[in-house]
Amino acid sequence: xxxxFVIFLMIGFLVSLTASAGNVFAQQKIKLMVSAFPTxxxxxxxxxxxxxxxxxxxxxxxxxxxxxxxxxxxxxxxxGKADLLGPLTVTTMGAAFLGVGDFSxxxxxxxxxxxxxxxxxxxxxxxxxxxxxxxxxxxGRKVGKGLTMSQDMPEAILRAYGxxxxxxxxxxxxxxxxxxxxxxxxxxxxxxxxxxxxxxMIQLKEQARGDIALLSIGKAEWEKxxxxxxxxxxxxxxxxxxxxxxxxxxxxxxxxxTIKPMGIGVSKNLSEDIVYTYVKTIMDNLEAVQKSxxxxxxxxxxxxxxxxxxxxxxxxxxxxxxxGLWTAAHQTAQAKLLK
Length: 339
Description:
Blueprint (H helix, E strand, L loop, with lengths): L1 H26 L2 E7 L7 H14 L2 E7 L7 H5 L5 E6 H9 L12 E17 L14 E5 L5 H9 L9 E5 L3 H8 L5 E5 L3 H9 L4 E4 L3 H10 L8 E5 L7 E3 L3 E13 L4 H12 L2 H7 L8 H4 L9 H10 L4 H10 L2
Parallel strand pairs: 1-2, 1-3, 5-6, 5-7, 8-10
Antiparallel strand pairs: 3-11, 4-7, 4-8, 4-11, 9-11
Helix pairs in contact: 5-8, 6-7, 9-12
């Protein structure tokens, strides 16, 4: 009887030891790298906020690596030097996956999608002093063009308004957007296309000679532009955006914009379990995510899972199936992209 008791005691000890070892393994840190915007970009703080939240709730140890800009961000994921990507526009990630636009001839087939975390509204902006009230009014005017971002979308929109880009527009080329904001405020250019939210808009309002105005994009014209150049509009959509979210602008209200969803991407080589943990942690803590940064206030389950512009990762799909967010339409679009 004593021998039997000793045997059971030893078995219990071994089981306990094995469980402890498993628990220790489960708590071991798993290191991940995020390819992110430069630190001075408006979506860098949300990148920190989201990943800090994930680290607080999991054993994932996440490092954020700032890249030179949006076009430089997908490369490290494709090359296996980073695990996660963004937030970055779905338009940019989709173009990288397909190898079109700024990534022409250089597809990134290892990219996979996780979720949309916010909306980036873009439009042509001008000043009230310019007298320009709609996009057709840019004929004969001086328009800024940034060389660090794709011009396919804004140029397609101008063509939809019947403008000849060579004859009707006086282009002023810039290496980046900062000088365009300055020159618009000083009246050196009449308009340019960019995001209409963020600190730069507040600064523009303070520096401009008069009020800032936006040139609303009509839904019909937007759809015409998207149909003419679909690769430039990957994942994007049209929306009338309320100006209460853009305090620097006086008119019109609401303004017709092109919306580029801001999303998070990942390498297809990252394990399903890790991706599942990452996505589920975010979706289980929606309110905390919304409160973590002003750019994330609009994050919700309603916008997180659009039809795919490029394939979702299996780990994300598993979460969305469990939440009832993955539909037959999602599955059909996913299967088509993976053919």
